Amino acid sequence: MAEIKHAAYICKGCELGSRLDAAALVKVATKDGKMPLVREHDFLCSAEGVAMIKNDIANEGVTHAAICACSRRAKTEAFNFPTVAVSRGNLREGVIWIRPDTDEARETTQEMAEDYVRMACAEVKAMKVPEGNQNTGTSKTLLVVGGGMSGMTAALEAAKTGYKVVLVEKTGALGGMAGQLWKRIPNREPFKAPMDSGVADLVAQIEADASIKVYLNAVIAKTSGAPGRFRVDIAVESGPTVTEDIGAIIQATGFTPYDVNKLGKLGGGQANVVDQLGLEALAKSANGGAIKRADGKDVKSAVFVQCAGQRDTSGEHLSYCSGHCCATSVKQAMYFKDANPDVETVILFTDLRMPGNNEDFYRAAQNKGIVFRKGEVSNVSGGDTCKVQFKDLILDEDTSTDADIVVLATGMVPTTGPDLDQLSEANRAAEGGDTTAKEQVVQMMSKSVLNLDYRQGPDVPQFKHGFNDSHFICFPYETRRTAIYAAGPVRRPMDIAQAQEDATGAAMKAIQAIENAGLGKAAHPRSGDLSFPSVRLEGCTQCKRCTVECPFGAIDEDEKRFPLFNESRCRRCGTCMGACPVRVISFENYSVNTVGAQIKAVDIPDEFSEKPRVLILACENDAYPALDMAGMNRNAYDPFVRIIPVRCLGSVNTIWITDALNSGYDGVMLMGCKHGDQYQCHFVKGSELGRYRMSKVYDTLKGMNLETERLMDLEVAITDVDTLPQKINDYAAKIVEMGMSPFKGL
Amino acid sequence: MTVATNQTILVVGGGIAGMTAALEAAETGKQVVLVEKNPYLGGRTVQLYRYFPKMCHPTCGLEINLRRLKANPRIQVLTMAEVTGISGDKGNYSVNVKLAPRFVNENCTACGECNKAATSEIDDAFNYDLGKVKAAYLPNDMAYPQRYVIDPSVVGTAEGQAIKAACKYGAVDLDMKEEVVTLNAGAIVWATGWQPYDAAKITPYRYGEFKNVITNVEFERLADPHGPTGGKILRPSDGKEAKNVAFIQCAGSRDENHLRHCSRFCCMASLKQTRYVQEAFGDAGKSTIYYIDIRAIDRFEDFYQEVKANPNVSFVKSKVARISEDKNGDPRLWGVNTEGYKRYSEPHDLVVLAVGMEPSVKNVAIPAEVMGDSSGFVMADPSNAGIFGAGCATNALDVNRAVQSATAAALRAVQVVNQVARAEA
């Protein structure tokens, strides 16, 4: 291990030199920060300033640098020294830009800057340059679960990129739901007629590709390990179980159609009332000729009922829309019209949803004489002559129509596996001896797709309506299981064109996960981060909080019930570190100590000074940028706050709060992202878990005879640029009103 | 100096799709050059106030993407840059990129002294020209590169000299000239995004003539606290609070005289914007959506149902025939509610046209042979060789579909450069 040498750099540019006493800051870094080397510079981010730091690294042996200049979000290209530990003292956005340039403000502004210098020095001394996860996997093979359109596409695209693929399909043939279609919705100009599904072509390509190994009639019996080193047991029907070494996984298990028998009012289960797949089967057997009913009779009229058991507000059926069904009904009506233009086809809809170039497909349907009626269907009866009763919303009247066949456009139900929350509840009850719960567990486990040997359950956590969890807008591929991606309708309802695009994207993410696991680097959102959690097992009390709370299921328990970290599953949010009551979990560059040392480094004036101190722990993803932008807009806020960015509210260990209050801080403010259904936390559950933990701190405060208001939890969005300063000021005013902490100077 | 080889992926367009494609490829170990026309990254998403359906803020995801970018040495970013020529073939393209002068170099610390020195004002493009900025400006608070821009109008003037003198760091360089650089690339991801359809072409709606007829993208800026009205929904003609807002769907979309296609995002955008009206005025805020079909596809249906349950939002099934203007400046909508065939003539405080998406660079305008659909969106086709469309350059998409598309495009580009690497190994 090379010798450690600390250095601090004080920038005087951007008015830092004129607004602050730089000489005093140098003194603080030397004396309080105990930095053996301290330099000031008029323009630290200039080529010359950067060269000075680089020279110190090369010739003075500097290994740790505290750069006291602008925000850590600014000038990142200039202050990029990958071989040394770097902390940033935010004197610009965090001090001079949020304080008025007046004589009265000068003293408190300087005190603020001095504290940030102390904090930057303390932080960097507690940091190490991360060396990367040594426990990396070497498998570069992708596992694709599901051999439908999405799965086949993902497999082929990965193979084209140069990766080996193992494709596991439950049934005896590739093709999935798309294989049951007569034709597909067009995805090319002129968007006027149904086209070949392309399934046969994909199957042929897969069969011809030596880098894709296909298991038919096979399911995943067990998945253990971590990205880059998954071990997957594949149970093949009437054969031995095979084990494959896998780097990353794509779940492309698709959907099942909503059970049409649940739609009794719409004629589900009655003669000549079919769902869309039912009609595809009839079209396939007609093979391009006139479609006949199951009883062999010609069809002279067909009615399509859209949103059958979908967009349902009663709570009885699916509440969402499956997206493809309008275009699918148009396609199926064309099957009839193309074979015989005299067949009457009526599509009953409330909103016709055919986005993009499907509009041309819709126009083509109108030109072919397909009738569209805006109506709400109340009742369907099957039989030799089917009857459809509906309210015509245009004519504003109740009416009905007869048809030889009725097609119900039912929705997609994702095949995500059991809901993990329900499963763990059933597990708890089963452990308590509840026999029905035991059966429930067995029944739920039989639905598992991945059979993950993870502490937190066998499958990927779900979001709304049973689809795979994801960030949904900006980062749609991110599930809560690292290197396991969902593709196709298992993720959200979608048509073939979208599923193929989705599968290609999922293959991209899986390949990326494989490559980064191999290098010991984190996956999204801290992509490239080489740090990983290490645990001091001798101090561990086996409380299981880390294994239960990790939002990404990264931590298992070993035979002795100690936490077993799977570094390449870890996303580096620090939730485990925040959860640990005995503080034995840390990252090389982010630990209880890197933050704790900063808290301790702040100078706490005595109780007669009228200078309170408020600690703010701010989420670095949203709150901290908002504070930076407040600075850029020169929105002033209270000079008595000291802000420390944290990776996520979930990483906040309660010791920071109790230590701060014990050492004389007058208040602590937490700033984190929104949680709940519309969560904005980039670690999904981090802010929620952090908040839950904080609720327990209030009891500790009571035990200390402190007002609970001395801890404040604020939900902050990145756009709260103008309102956040006011909220800080309000809180600071409240602290003043409450009086100084009795713990000062103790 | 930009370094690029035939194993480099060139991404054209730095909006959400381009950034995603660049990041996904770079995080897989590939070299990427990202070319953006604006002086900043983020594209149209940064100009949105909130995203549907979570009502969260686009800058939240942008912050993560920017951090990924700052941490990744494999991506080189060229802003104020446009591709003017492409030659060569898959695996070995030669691309000309025109760089417009920013008049500010990398010395810039974003301290803002140049802005203080500037006296003249120019239209604020970031706010769709609804406001003004000084001629030395940072395009927005999240702008990356975090570097000011000097408008060419002050070059050669006394003001320009004053701006230059105000910078202590030698960052202002008024002698910068437009230049063209030539880059090598193995594959190209074309992610130039979309532009709102020109509402003035829909003549019966009198956009540009009636001040209180605006577009959906402009409404985003009105609702944004960092927009020209400080987030107050004020109508342009007289600054009156716009409490009774009409949204006209399919303004230009689903119309063979304008855009043939359905632009997909506009229904959700208007549903979202009714929430802005509700937030601003509570029960005093009323929204009316004039629509043909409400296309709240798949999981978005929940959001539609929530808005539908709001008694302050009404829905009229109608393609609005025309707009007139009352004496007090109220735009008046004329048409027929096809549900029950009722004629209407309704005044509103403000009309928001839900204009559709068209590609900002149509396939025929790309300096290479690229297949397109009837609207000029890039279509996937083997004849496009090593050029792959991504995001709204390929289709009218919402944000998460654009991200999906970009992630897929990144893989297609990676396939090409991997092939090149294998051939050269």
Describe this structure in words.
Chain A contains 19 helices and 29 strands. By secondary structure, chain A is an alpha/beta fold. A seven-stranded mixed sheet of chain A has the order 13-19-14-15-16-17-18. Chain A has a five-stranded parallel sheet with strand order 7-6-5-11-21, with helices on one face. Chain A has a four-stranded parallel sheet with strand order 2-1-3-4, covered by helices on one side. Chain B has 425 residues and is of the alpha/beta class. Chain B folds into three domains: 8-99 and 178-193 and 360-424, FAD/NAD(P)-binding domain (3-Layer(bba) Sandwich); 113-166, no CATH class; 197-357, FAD/NAD(P)-binding domain (3-Layer(bba) Sandwich), CATH 3.50.50.60. In chain B, 23% of the residues lie in helices and 25% in strands. Chain B contains eight helices and 22 strands. Chain B has a five-stranded parallel sheet with strand order 3-2-1-11-22, with helices on one face. A five-stranded parallel sheet of chain B has the order 13-20-14-15-16. In chain B, strands 4-5-10 form a three-stranded antiparallel sheet, with no helix packed on it. In chain B, α5 (216-223) packs parallel to α6 (266-281). Chain B is globular. The mean pLDDT of chain B is 97. The chains are: A alpha/beta (746), B alpha/beta (425). Chains A and B meet through α5, α9, α12 and α16 of A and α1, α2, α7 and α8 of B.
